[in-house]
Prior knowledge:
Helices cover 39% and strands 20% of the residues. By secondary structure, the chain is an alpha/beta fold. Strands 3-2-4-1-5-6 form a six-stranded mixed β-sheet. Helix 1 (29-46) packs across helix 6 (157-165). The protein is globular and about 50 Å long.
Amino acid sequence: MSKYLILYRHGIAEDKESAEEDDLRALSPRGKVLLKKSVAGFKTMIDNYETLKIYSSPTVRAKETAEMLAEELDLDEPTYLEFLATGSGVSRLRELVEEIEPGEAAIVVGQQPYLSLWSQEISGTFLRFKKGTAACFKFPDEELGESKVELRWYLQTRDFVKIADK
């Protein structure tokens, strides 16, 4: 059985001038509204996974996004990992995937440019992660002879909202 990794960029944050440090910027009021509207569509995309775990960068905007996802999806509290804020090598991300059980999905909430770089490193596909964008990757089931990480889907906030509106 395969494992899944969902890379999720935080929602729209406050302007850079609003905080002393970039890591302290919170979601903007508009960002919170859009994120909440998009979660129903996101939920449709993740309904078939047995278990979901949320991991997040400890930056304020990522934490707020992860906490909103956990609340709206009725999941356990997120686990905060420093390497998700610093963009450490993809090996740490692969270790995280190794820790989850087959059939499970890890939702990793982070920021740019790390999400795009990790996407390219794990799958060979460079994806542009706008705010509120998510991409799901299926890791190979070695028992079935699979060997490559596969991009399953890639959707932006507006796409999730459209799914929710149907």
